[in-house]
Amino acid sequence: MMPIVQKYKYPLLLVGIGLIWLFFWNEILQLNNQNNICNDCDNYRESAALLFHQCKTHYFRPIGMALITGLPYLFGANDAAIYSFSFIVNVLAWLGTALFLFGFLKKRVSPKIAFVASLLYYSVLSGVFNHFQLLTEPIFTFLMAAIFYFLDQFDRKKEFYWLSMAISVLIFAVLVKPSVKFLALFSLLYFGKIILNNYRAKSAVFIYVSMLLVVFQCVKMKMDYGNFTLTYVDGVTYYNYLGSKAFYYKQNNSLSQDTNERAVYLAQQSYPDQQKIATQDLLNQLADNKYNVLKAYISDLSENTKTPNSGIATFKNLNNKAYFESLTKALSFMSKYQNRFFTLSGFLLALYFLFKNHENDRVYRLMGFYILYTIFISGVACAQGDRFHVVFFPFVIILLVQWYARIRAIEAAKPDEQ
Predict the structure, then answer these.
(1) Reported pTM
(2) d(CA 43, CA 256)
(3) E-only strand ranges, 257-306
């Protein structure tokens, strides 16, 4: 037993410390009793209910998240059980992300440094607080960590199995967070020749299964709502956020979702009509209001970079602790600056690894591309705290460690001064 414990001491420590850290914050903030169910949370619960009870798709939320979090419905569970089960899934995804992070880093730096860097991921407050919400971020971050781990294995071992795993998980991730669909298309093009050369390989079936799930999603959307599409959420998100902010800027006003008449109007339309209205609005604003569209986009990017975890402000002092208000203010402050640090560091490191040519850098370049892609598309919406950016924070840690290791190597290679 002891040799096994010794062999896996760092992964075991990571899991143990993660659970203790989670227990600590749960006790301090009564997180498991907050019961703050956000609108998006109930959307994901509704999506699971539609899939498992009616074999129907959700107009905004593709089936990926529903397939995972809706499993209790198979055993007759009620809606409350879905939220409890999602907490377990989120915690496992969070721990799994830390383990993938450690597994990736230990191939490049000492196990101790890899361990400490993986612990840094636990310091991200949103990573803890998001467990208690039925949201995609923990699961999606885990999927992306798995993808980059598999890509690294492919680069090292040159075995198609690892690439097929990475591509299949990425395609499935589109059904969890559809905003990565263009990233998935880019990856299919980027690795297209290799995939075509191995289309008969046994492991290629993983890619085909994920593709079939995407086709199923689109076909069911056509049957259920009228359009062959992944989701209607893209158009609604643009119209209610970026488009509305640009519209109100033109009227010398500011956007407030509480008084957003455009959102009220759009909600009264059918889902196919919502898509048409949003598309036409985008074309019209790009033609007649492009300055304010750009202004709104920059404003969204700024807001998504500067704001803290949005859930902290909703925490209630259920046990009437004297420290509660001061602590939540401090946590909001810390979360705000964590977002700023990881976003700005990620942006700069992404540029560095994308345009600084080094051998064996492909996985870092792809990480950099993913970070920039995520930042770029986040400008379509706002008022979500750090939700858009928190999904790339683990990869900022990887790039930071690699950058530091590279600087140390350069310094070590310099001749000693006499």
Answers:
(1) 0.94
(2) 21
(3) none
